[in-house]
Amino acid sequence: MTKYLLIVAFALMGCKSKSVEQTEVIFTGQQFKMELLKGKWLTNGKKNKSDFRIFREDFKMQDSDLSILIPYELKKDSIFFFINKKIISGRLVSMDTKELKILWGNSEPITYYRPK
Q1: Domains delineated in the chain
Q2: Looking at the whole model, is its pTM more than 0.85?
Q3: Does residue 64 contact residue 54 with C-beta atoms inside 8 Å?
Q4: What average pLDDT does this structure show over 2-27?
Q5: Could you tell me if 34 and 98 are in contact, meaning their C-beta atoms sit under 8 angstroms apart?
Q6: HSE-up of residue 56 (Cα within 13 Å, Cβ side)
Q7: CA dihedral 12, 15, 20, 22 (to 10 degrees)
Q8: How many CA atoms lie within 13 A of 67 on its CB side?
Q9: 55-107 pLDDT tens trace
């Protein structure tokens, strides 16, 4: 009986179900730093300078249409936007002087670029 159970166990271990690959995001433990965050960040690649966000030191973010100021808050590696009584949150993946990566929800991280 024991031999039979071992054979069944090994057979089950050999049967792996195929699953869809998911992108794994590794958080580095970085925190948002205002001196790096403040200023203009391009949102649709390095060359498209018409879509951007400006993070201001007064904790307001200005969109590329320049008409709306959206309040935001930083807490360690998280950023929170307050829009029409809704809170939208993201987590910092990486940040340096040229690139900013934020994970919004469960999708892939969005990369923002510092204009040249």
Answers
A1: 25-113 (2.40.128.280)
A2: no
A3: no
A4: 44
A5: no
A6: 11
A7: 60
A8: 1
A9: 999 999 998 888 889 999 999 999 999 999 999 999 999 999 999 999 998 88
